[in-house]
Automatic annotation (TrEMBL):
<dbReference type="InterPro" id="IPR011146">
    <property type="entry name" value="HIT-like"/>
</dbReference>
<dbReference type="GO" id="GO:0009117">
    <property type="term" value="P:nucleotide metabolic process"/>
</dbReference>
<dbReference type="InterPro" id="IPR039384">
    <property type="entry name" value="HINT"/>
</dbReference>
<dbReference type="GO" id="GO:0003824">
    <property type="term" value="F:catalytic activity"/>
</dbReference>
<dbReference type="InterPro" id="IPR001310">
    <property type="entry name" value="Histidine_triad_HIT"/>
</dbReference>
<feature type="short sequence motif" description="Histidine triad motif">
    <location>
        <begin position="98"/>
        <end position="102"/>
    </location>
</feature>
<dbReference type="Pfam" id="PF01230">
    <property type="entry name" value="HIT"/>
</dbReference>
<feature type="active site" description="Tele-AMP-histidine intermediate">
    <location>
        <position position="100"/>
    </location>
</feature>
<dbReference type="InterPro" id="IPR036265">
    <property type="entry name" value="HIT-like_sf"/>
</dbReference>
<protein>
    <submittedName>
        <fullName>HIT family protein</fullName>
    </submittedName>
</protein>
<feature type="domain" description="HIT">
    <location>
        <begin position="6"/>
        <end position="113"/>
    </location>
</feature>
């Protein structure tokens, strides 16, 4: 762990929490400020800042683990659905700079809404796609 933050302290057992899952690379805990009860935080034990710092081998492991956590959460809580989120950088809402995935159980009528979209301006969609494709081809 290369950064001191609340998650590194939890991983070292310096701060008590409800651990849902743990292996050599990851720990899953209950969020102390849940969207709904059962909101899980899945984090690598190594303190990567966000997805941009996470190595490929960790990213390959996280996908199946997210699915396993989401399925268990949905079944155990009889949730109607599940949101999975990862905030990357301050502008995207990242507050703790230790990568962590939110696995949030959702229920019909729970009152939460997703972000609102907006229409592209004329020509904006094509220009945006071109920029992203150019970045991908580097």
């Amino acid at each position: 762990m290369n950064e001191e933050n609340i998650f590194t302290k939890i991983i070292r057992r310096e701060i008590p929490t409800e651990i849902i899952y743990e292996d050599d690379d990851f720990m899953a805990i209950l969020d102390i400020l849940p969207v709904n009860p059962g909101h899980i935080l899945l984090m690598p034990k190594h303190s990567y800042k966000n997805i941009f710092d996470m190595p490929e081998d960790i990213l390959k492991k996280v996908g199946p683990l997210l699915k396993t956590m989401a399925l268990a959460q949905k079944e155990a809580l009889e949730a109607d659905g599940v949101n999975i989120g990862l905030n990357n950088e301050k502008a995207a809402g990242q507050v703790i700079f230790h990568a962590h995935f939110h696995i949030m159980p959702r229920f019909e009528g729970d009152g939460y809404k997703l972000w609102e979209g907006r229409q592209y301006k004329t020509g904006e969609m094509k220009k945006t796609a071109e920029k992203i494709r150019a970045a991908l081809s580097k």
